[in-house]
């Protein structure tokens, strides 16, 4: 009699989620933020994303060819597209084409495939590339356009600006709220919010809306159970608690928690970066501690370091600690204590 080869009764194939399906959900979750950034900052967001995705697929194919891996199988999983998308969303609107190209190619070829490909890289590829670009090309990494949806360059003008096909337009870029806060020149918070254009309500609103858009995308991913709440909530709580402590100590010098939560890449980092299952901690407690650590480091580097936004550096530093967290936050094996209690005692 022949035996049938079937799955176990407890296995439901309809609940099995492929890598491609998960990556598709992440891409869908970024749609609100993409729309908000395009509305306030212009067509540069869409151009950067398109260029980044093309470079990512070409870099992925090149790396797979060198490694003699099945090209079509890995190109379909969408991981390269997600890496390119997250990096493009973190880059300035008027980032030159070569900046995006260098960053994406480095993220895929070096930060991902030189460590063995997806699932083996110890550091988040998008954040590795962002840190490289920020350290190597600090001026080009500050070319954020002024957030005004009523006055943005046309698609053709933006395309020409990014690809250097025309003379650069003057007066299009402006400081971000974090830049304005970092270069306070000893002013109090009230003086800063009254004098800095980036901190005016109509300007600051754009960054808040974009942050809320990333938050909505994160809520969608939580609802789809793509990841658990521990890492993102841990990061937001870490920022909120330490910011509140410093604000209580000196309310004239330190911004409130709401400022740090709704500016920069906080929401992007909380719901799309620290939730990376490969480079984050794997245990439940480990993910919570990982998120808290990232949040505290983000605030400390923003406030006392040299860089206004510190999500990339904070994530990379905590990536170093992920194996340590997994080692010391492993959950107890079910029934382990009970089984040991029943063992006979050793005789002296």
UniProtKB/TrEMBL annotation:
Primary location recorded for the protein, binned into one broad class: membrane
Residue spans crossing the bilayer: 21-41, 47-66, 73-91, 127-146, 206-223, 230-249, 255-274, 286-304
FMN phosphoryl threonine sites (modified residues): 176
Co-factor(s): FMN
Family the entry assigns: Belongs to the NqrB/RnfD family.
Subunit and partners: The complex is composed of six subunits: RnfA, RnfB, RnfC, RnfD, RnfE and RnfG.
Protein name: Ion-translocating oxidoreductase complex subunit D
